[in-house]
Amino acid sequence: MTTREPQQERSRTTRRRLIDAAVECLAERGWHGTTVSVIAERAGVSRGAAQHHFPTREDLVVAAVAFLGEEQITELRQRAAALPQGPSRAGPVAEMLLNLFTGPKFRAALHLWVAASTDEALREVLVPLEARVGREAHRVALELLGADEAQPGVRETVQATLDLARGLGLANLLTDDTRRRNQIIRQWARILEPTVAATADSAAS
Amino acid sequence: MTTREPQQERSRTTRRRLIDAAVECLAERGWHGTTVSVIAERAGVSRGAAQHHFPTREDLVVAAVAFLGEEQITELRQRAAALPQGPSRAGPVAEMLLNLFTGPKFRAALHLWVAASTDEALREVLVPLEARVGREAHRVALELLGADEAQPGVRETVQATLDLARGLGLANLLTDDTRRRNQIIRQWARILEPTVAATADSAAS
């Protein structure tokens, strides 16, 4: 069956398997335990094929983190459509955003970020990616809240929400922090409410 | 002069030099580049003397992170005494707390936390330390705000402040994020104001 798969699709499947394996590997073993050989073996791909798609370890892990960041943003956008309008939106949005960085994808990215702080080559490829994914995440958070950045304080509250989400991801790294996080999410929804309500008012006027 | 230094004081000086060297080393090279030999050399202490004080690399780095966490909390407490009473306290407190994790001490701790996520032995010593330092930081944040945990939402807002601070520390890891952070700090002061004001009201009643 695989031999009948068109070349382009096969290539896409291989890339995807390498990306998934890279994220798993980073999350479980960290940057120092993540090599092209280890990733290729986990993906069931030859080392040569892996290097055909991604010449270096940096290329592969950066592509992986970028891909997963975009996938997560697409998923958020799809869920946004089902949300209620007005202030009651604040609760489900707080939950979606503040749980964003609690899984193995964030752990994988965190390994890269921290490794990059002592690795110049890795830093150079990650900084532009961080900026791009950060901008996208900010845009989708605004959409989710239905918030208007022209209102004073809205931009900063939305930014704080994403920074808080990353802080909560960190707090969930070594222990299961779900219970404490859920209480913070409830309080955060109250803090976000005026942001959503102000926008709804101004849209109505 | 050093030979006249009392034994106990000399021992304290050595420990302190090892701790400072461990933090510098972690912040610059990460966990994988931090060995007892490297730390001892940087501290100007023999490897044997270093191991007399701290038998393993884990002992040394954990002591370092614990010591610096406590030092930071003591410093915050001293600065708390100089703060104004009432809601105007929110501004300087937001600034103090949200800048807490932007320096090399946080970077050192972050290397350890992330390494511990893939290293069982390190995780075992770090988890109780994380809980202890977390509780202390929460207590000092409450003191700084002059906030009363019995008021609904106060506990969670204070927790969110520290989680946000860690998120902002992460955002400052690869690039200088000061400008963006300062805007978030201003908005955060507005969000914290009712927490401080509610407490001041209830204290006055």
Number of strands of chain A: 0
Share of residues in helices of chain A: over 70%
- N-end to C-end Cα span of chain A: 60 Å
- The low-confidence runs of chain A, each spanning 5 or more residues with pLDDT under 50, are none
Q: Write down the overall mean pLDDT of chain A.
A: 89
Using the coordinates shown, work out and report the CATH topology of chain A. Tetracycline Repressor, domain 2
Number of domains of chain A: 1
The succession of helices and strands of chain A, N to C, reads HHHHHHHHH
Largest interface: A-B, 44 and 45 residues
CATH architecture of chain A: Orthogonal Bundle
* Text of the CATH class of chain A: Mainly Alpha
Strand proportion of chain A: under 5%
The total of helices of chain A stands at 9
The oligomeric state is: homodimer
- Shape type of chain A: elongated
Radius of gyration of chain A: 19 Å
Alpha-beta content class of chain A: mainly alpha
Described by strand count, sense and barrel closure, the largest sheet of chain A is: none
Protein name (chains A, B): TetR family transcriptional regulator
InterPro entries (chains A, B): Homeodomain-like_sf, HTH-type_TetR-like_transc_reg, HTH_TetR
Pfam family, one (chains A, B): TetR_N
Keywords (chains A, B): DNA-binding
